[in-house]
């Protein structure tokens, strides 16, 4: 953002120079504040999070000054990033799950935490990756990467929590607004049970791409038509279901699948293993990442055997809808909104009706006159200076006094 734009106009280099309005600047600032509240809203900026134990999800940072490459990786909480590492070089890690703040422990040779010095030497439950040294994706590059000229979004895997370039996921991702969570190639290989759910739950992705040689642009050529396949499967399933029900009624005993992953945990259908039922159908494994809608976690089986499998794979969080980044952001935003009070509304609530009308009229006059005043700077392509703003308010107060001199208000 140019300095001139922040003041309500832009430094025009010519007739074609775009002008940034004050409204656009305010809208952009509001959006940035909203994003910041979402990411940081659930974190305390004054107290170290160590006393809370392994925080379910929090904003984290890595200090390149204290733990450079070659040293042990370490993560610090939001408050410690301000108080203990304010002048250091930090890597923003966005959010991580189940993490103890490391600030000042044995990984920091010459630093003691100012906020919570009584930390243990190590946090054995913490998980680290190359992100803690500012490297991301399978390409192990920094972000932003000064040597990468290809525009590409970074997407976080919900399992390993590493960030990946969209072009390095083995498949062209769907549009960012079409999916809520992603599981990378390596995690899909480790958690292969997820492939059983892909045909029914995963967001369709691009299967073929064409590269335009002149521009290097990736074009979408063919999309997986999962919806049609699912519809056909459902129709075939319904037809087969009628026959199976008749046969079961005659034999008066349920049939079981020889390829089951886990036994039924109860005799009723509600406690049957969803994974077992889906595994009986055909599914395809690929060497790609997968993309999922917001309801993935509520659809995974939670029978006794599946929960045991999640525990062995250390992915119990996959059934926790409160673990998602979206849930964290929503909580942060709602907490911040609850703490924020509108001073104008507080002032109005303390006034009688006549005073409220007068204040609203004055506010509208100020808004209208300030807009007209700033528009002149935008039209001329000049920068709004501090003295210009001071002059406006002095003139506004003078005009206000002239308007109100000799005027009397009556209440009926």
TrEMBL record:
List the GO terms this entry assigns under cellular component, sorted alphabetically: cytoplasm
- UniProt lists the gene as UBR7
Please describe what this protein does: E3 ubiquitin-protein ligase which is a component of the N-end rule pathway. Recognizes and binds to proteins bearing specific N-terminal residues that are destabilizing according to the N-end rule, leading to their ubiquitination and subsequent degradation.
| One Pfam family of this chain | zf-UBR
Where in this chain does the record put each UBR-type domain? Answer: 46-118
Positions with biased composition (Basic and acidic residues):
229-246
Q: What class of enzyme is it?
A: transferase
In what ranges is there compositional bias, type Polar residues? 248-264
Q: What is this protein called?
A: Putative E3 ubiquitin-protein ligase UBR7
> A single Gene Ontology molecular function, please?
ubiquitin protein ligase activity
Reactions this protein catalyses? S-ubiquitinyl-[E2 ubiquitin-conjugating enzyme]-L-cysteine + [acceptor protein]-L-lysine = [E2 ubiquitin-conjugating enzyme]-L-cysteine + N(6)-ubiquitinyl-[acceptor protein]-L-lysine
Q: Report the domain of life of the source organism.
A: Eukaryota
């Amino acid at each position: 953002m140019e300095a001139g734009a922040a003041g309500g106009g832009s430094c025009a280099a010519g007739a074609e120079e775009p002008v940034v309005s004050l409204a656009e600047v305010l809208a952009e600032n509001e959006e940035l504040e909203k994003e910041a509240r979402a990411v940081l809203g659930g974190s305390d900026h004054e107290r170290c999070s160590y006393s809370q134990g392994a925080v379910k999800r929090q904003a984290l940072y890595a200090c390149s000054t204290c733990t450079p490459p070659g040293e042990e990786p370490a993560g610090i909480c939001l408050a410690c990033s301000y108080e203990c590492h304010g002048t250091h070089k930090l890597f923003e890690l966005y959010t991580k799950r189940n993490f103890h703040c490391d600030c000042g422990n044995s990984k920091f040779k010459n630093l003691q935490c100012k906020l919570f010095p009584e930390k243990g030497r190590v946090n054995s439950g913490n998980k680290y990756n190359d992100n803690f040294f500012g490297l991301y994706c399978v390409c192990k590059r920094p972000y932003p990467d000064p040597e990468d000229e290809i525009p590409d979004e970074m997407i976080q895997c919900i399992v390993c929590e590493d960030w990946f370039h969209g072009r390095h996921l083995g498949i062209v991702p769907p549009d960012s607004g079409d999916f809520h969570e992603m599981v990378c190639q390596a995690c899909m290989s480790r958690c292969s049970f997820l492939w059983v759910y892909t045909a029914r739950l995963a967001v369709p992705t691009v299967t073929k791409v064409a590269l335009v040689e002149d521009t290097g642009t990736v074009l979408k050529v063919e999309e997986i038509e999962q919806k049609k396949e699912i519809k056909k499967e459902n129709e075939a399933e319904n037809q087969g279901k009628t026959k199976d029900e008749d046969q079961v009624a005659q034999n008066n005993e349920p049939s079981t699948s020889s390829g089951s992953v886990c036994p039924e945990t109860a005799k009723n259908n509600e406690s049957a293993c969803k994974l077992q039922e889906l595994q009986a159908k055909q599914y395809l494994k690929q060497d790609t990442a997968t993309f999922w809608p917001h309801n993935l976690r509520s659809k995974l089986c939670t029978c006794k055997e599946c929960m045991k499998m999640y525990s062995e794979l250390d992915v119990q969080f996959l059934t926790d809808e409160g673990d998602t980044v979206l849930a964290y952001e929503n909580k942060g935003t709602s907490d911040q909104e609850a703490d924020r009070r509108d001073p104008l509304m507080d002032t109005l609530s303390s006034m009688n009706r006549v005073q409220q009308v007068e204040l609203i009229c004055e506010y509208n006059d100020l808004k209208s006159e300030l807009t007209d005043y700033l528009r002149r700077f935008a039209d001329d392509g000049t920068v709004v200076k501090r003295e210009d703003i001071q002059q406006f308010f002095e003139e506004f107060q003078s005009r206000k006094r002239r308007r109100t001199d000799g005027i009397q208000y009556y209440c009926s």
